[in-house]
Amino acid sequence: MSSIVSITNLNKIYKTLFSKQKVHAVKDLNLEILKGEVFGLLGPNGSGKTTTIKLMLGLLFPTTGQIKIMDESAGSSKVHQSIGYLPEESYLYRFLNADEILHFYGKLFGIPKEKRLKKIDELIEMVGLSKSRKRPLKSYSKGMMRRIGIAQALINDPDFIVLDEPTSGLDPIGSREVKDLILKLKLEGKTVLLCSHLLSDVEDVCDRIAIMYEGKMECLGKVTDLLSVSETKEITLPPNQPDFVEFMLQNAKSRGLTLEVKHPRRKLEDLFMEIVRKNKN
Amino acid sequence: MIGPIIAIAKNTFQEAIRSNILIVCLVVLGVLCAFAPMFPALNDSHSRLKLALSISTSLCFYFGLIIIIFTSAAFLPEEISSKRIYTIFTKPVSRVQYLLGKLLGVFFLSFCLLFVFAIIVIGFVRLTYQSFDEQSKKSGEGFLRTINPYTFESFKRFRYGKEVGEVPSHYFEVAYSQIDAKNFDGKLSFKILANYLKPEKTGKVYFDIFLYDATSKKEIFSMKEVEVLDKKLVTIPFDISALKEVQTLKNVMIRVVIAQKSLDYISGISMKSSDFYLHQVSQPIELNILKCFFIFSLQFALLGFVAVAASTRMSYYIATIFALTTFAAGSLTGFLKEYMLDKEQKIHYKIIETDTFYAKVSHFLDQYMQVVCSIMPNFSKHDVSTQLIDGISLSFGKMFSISGHYGLYITAYLMLAAFMIWRREV
């Protein structure tokens, strides 16, 4: 798979005008994001995730190093044409309504009116804001703001989508919808960079992840590889097999091994979704 | 290329008109205009019209100035602090396009605001005019189409060129200089209110009125035995447009002589509030207000963009102060230049000592101010409000020249702002 983002020896040092103190926010970062994957960027506060994203989007300029996105320099108009960005908070014009804001961003991409109208209808329907599309954004809840933020990030049908905390402020249903959307985008061949504090979200949708700490990348790899414990094995049995469990326990005992037998647990999110779905029906 | 610029401009305009500051200012302006007719009533219709124009124009000017500067200075810091800029700069919009969009937004805001203000002023002036009686209205009309009214409270009494105090007057003079023939359609009116010290039985005095070219002292027009009643305001119109000399007039002198016929009957005369008007090519006051406010809107657009340009690297407060300082410095440019010229002359004639430390510091500051005055846009030179209040029409040539002046500064500030925002990290 070819890479969509290529970062080489990236360093970012913040300097202040009247102070000698420097902050080394990103240290010798080398990273490649492959086309069509969902990539998770993790790390505690102040680890350099947001700085890295800003550098990739051309909002900040690297002190040293190089960032190439789709073989173009980061921050160029050509790159921005194919990027969708959802910031950490939905920073939008609160005096506009959903229709107006999407028209505004659509115009920035130079999307023709007819195509824009069609796309806006489609996106508003997708994020579930059809009923409140004419209300000014200042009357929106945090979750609704997040949804319209996602819609604006997708207005240009981007190839590379950067989502910073996309599920923050959303209820479990909204959160699941966003995760489903990310997977849908992946199926459409889009590349997604996901930055989140909610590790379960990252685990659910990401193919690969990188963990940053104090500006350095500490870990990079496939989620399945990184999370699997290779020394031990887990066996899942079909229902109603007490004899086989007993047999296994006896066998292990004779070999001097200790086996742990328990029922597999469902995720709380799955339980919640099941109850909601049942009540809906 | 142009699509994103227009989108940003429209957004900027919408943001401004939906903000509370604009509504508050418009309400305050409306209230002040509503109270304005309660200002002291003046007997003289010209003065009342002038006052109405002056109050409403000044109010609109300063309110507009505050609205534009404060709103424009907030655009960029607001977008940066609210982080909305992230969603703009990550779209295929260059920073120059962004600035051009903001500039266009400020322009549009300025034009719309000043158009609304112009309508308010026209309405207010018309409202004031409606309250005049018929006689005042007629003389008011004269004001609306005249230039350079010359007013005096008393006149000197002369006999054979010498002031003679209590002795009956022979003549008095008023002079205009630097008359632009293009603005003068050859019509002259002479308004006089006279109190005769010893009026003859009929209460009539006769005047001979002469129009001279003040440079060559050549008489170009005269009117003999014009009748003026005691304590009655008289307006005497003259049409002298047929005279060739009128087309080349630069300096005009009007001499009013008490006619020989009157001399036997009066022993003294005093003049009160007499005005001379040189009529301008007729132009409706509404058009003049619109033209004047168009120039204001250009000035505001420039100041608004100064605020936007400053806010690319400065905070909201500093950018506001910078734009207000630019306005103050630009308005004082003419005065400062005159002051410095005067000082240089004093130094030249050794009236001011140049050896002392303070004199050197003062000289340095003068040099510094000279540089500042050269950089700053000259608002005092292009102040059209006085012209509007005096009823002088604004020519399209002058409007074009002022537009060019401001356009040049806007281009310079745009380049400076583009340079400052080019590598700005957000």
β-sheet strand percentage of chain A: 15-25%
Roughly what fraction of the amino acids of chain B lie in strands?
15-25%
- Largest sheet geometry of chain A: 6 strands, mixed
Instruction: Based on Cα principal axes, name the global outline of chain B.
Output: globular
Largest interface summary: A-B, 25 and 25 residues
Q: Element order, helices and strands of chain A?
A: EEEHEEHEHHHEHEHEEHHH
Number of helices of chain B: 12
Biggest β-sheet of chain B, characterized?
4 strands, antiparallel
The helix content of chain B, as a percent range, equals 55-70%
Written overview of the protein:
The complex is a heterodimer of chains A (281) and B (426). With 281 residues, chain A is of the alpha/beta class. Chain A is built from 10 helices and 10 strands. Chain A has helices at residues 49-57, 77-81, 98-108, 113-126, 142-153, 172-187, 199-205, 223-227, 242-254, 268-280; strands at 3-15, 22-34, 38-42, 64-69, 72-73, 83-86, 160-164, 191-195, 208-213, 216-222. In chain A, strand 4 and strand 5 (72-73) form a beta hairpin. In chain A, helix 3 (98-108) crosses helix 4. The radius of gyration of chain A is 23 Å and the shape is globular. Chain B has 426 residues and is α+β, with helices and mostly antiparallel strands. Chain B is built from 12 helices and 10 strands. Chain B has helices spanning 2-17, 20-35, 45-81, 85-89, 95-130, 134-144, 260-263, 285-311, 316-348, 357-375, 385-389, 396-422; strands at residues 146-152, 158-159, 162-163, 171-176, 187-196, 204-213, 218-229, 234-239, 252-258, 269-279. In chain B, strand 2 (158-159) and strand 3 (162-163) form a beta hairpin. Residues 145-169 of chain B have low confidence and may be disordered. Classes of the chains: A alpha/beta (281), B alpha+beta (426).
